[in-house]
Inverse folding.
């Protein structure tokens, strides 16, 4: 049996460019569903809580969500995805950012967030993650997100809410701390 660590020890697979995902396509929907189940299983272990809603979402629930999606594929299948909604005031709300365990530490989350910044510029961007998910918190903070609050979602389990405001200088790009 091959483990994810065995796969990650092999030469890196070529990644495609971030592209919009069409959840009306059943093959795309299935790949996204499998990707998020694998990714959220890792987060569930990190935060000690398996009640993360997308971890238990059905294919029909995923298809019916109102989020927009970008994805990145490798030679196997969909390796990462980000989803978002636009709030009534123009704020961009990042709903999901998932990377398959076989593809961790390859810059996929960063590539997806970079593409999202270009495709969907916003004065304010929101995101949340499990407080115990240190890799995700570090990624968001490097990208200029600041923790604004914490919310308890189960006994002993909190989610950190983060916000990023666009640099008001000409060009208005988000502030990244590389």
């Amino acid at each position: 049996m091959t483990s994810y660590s065995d796969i990650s020890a092999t030469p890196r697979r070529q990644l495609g460019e971030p592209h919009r995902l069409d959840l009306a396509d059943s093959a795309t929907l299935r790949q996204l569903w499998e990707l998020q189940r694998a990714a959220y299983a890792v987060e569930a272990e990190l935060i000690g809580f398996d009640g993360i809603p997308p971890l238990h979402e059905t294919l029909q629930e995923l298809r019916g969500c109102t989020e927009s999606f970008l994805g990145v594929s490798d030679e196997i299948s969909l390796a990462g995805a980000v989803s978002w909604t636009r709030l009534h005031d123009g704020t961009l709300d990042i709903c999901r950012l998932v990377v398959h365990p076989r593809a961790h530490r390859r810059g996929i989350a960063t590539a997806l967030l970079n593409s999202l910044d270009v495709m969907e510029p916003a004065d304010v961007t929101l995101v949340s993650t499990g407080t115990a998910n240190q890799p995700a918190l570090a990624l968001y903070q490097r990208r200029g997100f600041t923790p604004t609050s914490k919310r308890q979602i189960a006994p002993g389990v909190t989610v950190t809410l983060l916000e990023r405001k666009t640099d008001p200088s000409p060009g208005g790009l988000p502030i990244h701390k590389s």
Remarks:
- The radius of gyration is 16 Å.
- The first helix runs from residue 4 to 8.
- Residues 1-11 have pLDDT under 50 and may be disordered.
